[in-house]
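Notes, p. 3: input format for complexes.
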Amino acid sequence: EATAGLEGRLPLKMVHGVPLLELISDNWKQVEQFQARPDDLLIATYPKAGTTWMQEIVDLIENGGDLEKARRAPTHIRFPFLEMTYPPPVPSGVDILIATPSPRVIKTHLPFQLVPKSFLVQNCKMIYVARNPKDNVVSYFYFDQMNKMQPEPGPWEEYLQKFMDGNLSWGSWYEHVRGYWDAKKKHRILYTFYEDMKRDPTGEIQKVMEFLEVDLAPDVLQKIVHYTSFKAMKENPMANYSTIPKNIFDVSCGKFMRKGEVGDWKNHFTVSQNEAFDEDYQHKMAGTTLTFQMEM
Ligand code: A3P
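Output follows (296 residues plus adenosine-3'-5'-diphosphate):
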């Protein structure tokens, strides 16, 4: 049982200046020394940016649009979570990956500077999904209420400040999105945006297909667009995280497939929070060409 020994919310502990769940930090050596293989694909995101959505897209592309194949197991089994660590004897993400045959598709929330060096040495492909920070923090706020491994989110006002200060689990959103943006100049990274996937799923899925060097007929592509819609994934038990035990994801505190929209932040930010956020954002994002769509 993947939850044995877990007794509620975990504190954060720094790894090279990035706050991570203590279980991960305490196992950092194993993560750092992870041996990537050349045909590994890494799906990297800041938490709540659209990881699960991209995972489903990639899996369907690699299975030629065959939904039954993509429904062979829940998301967290199909895509081992690189840095995730549980109390022994439960295998860590790295333990699972060592035993996983190639080609492996690996999930991570690590910022680029903490990605194990072997991924760069092996020149592995990476897909990054970025989401506008306002929707990202709202989604994370709800998630931290239901995910009983994460630190207590506390009230919204304080949570927003922690996000701006880079004090949430996996650290600063600003450094995260900028890190991969800069890294894509040198490495094989497909950098995608949640908002683009909402606006033009066909075009974005096509980009992923090209990056993966998979050619599928237009009708198969349209099937994938359909199967990876919010509505379809919300109803798909193999894609909606409904199989996670209640002591980890407490579904009485909310659903994993919550809203799936662009601009929901407007229902949460006050006018003054929004002004303070925008001002701080200008400083933290100064000097980058990276831009976000905050609404559609
Ligand atoms: P909301 O909380 O805003 O609804 P992650 O997979 O990185 O944890 O991200 C989860 C967020 O992506 C949640 O956002 C979830 O609803 C949304 N999401 C998941 N699948 C989606 C889809 N097919 N279309 C749009 N949003 C999706």
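The longest helix spans residues 133-146.
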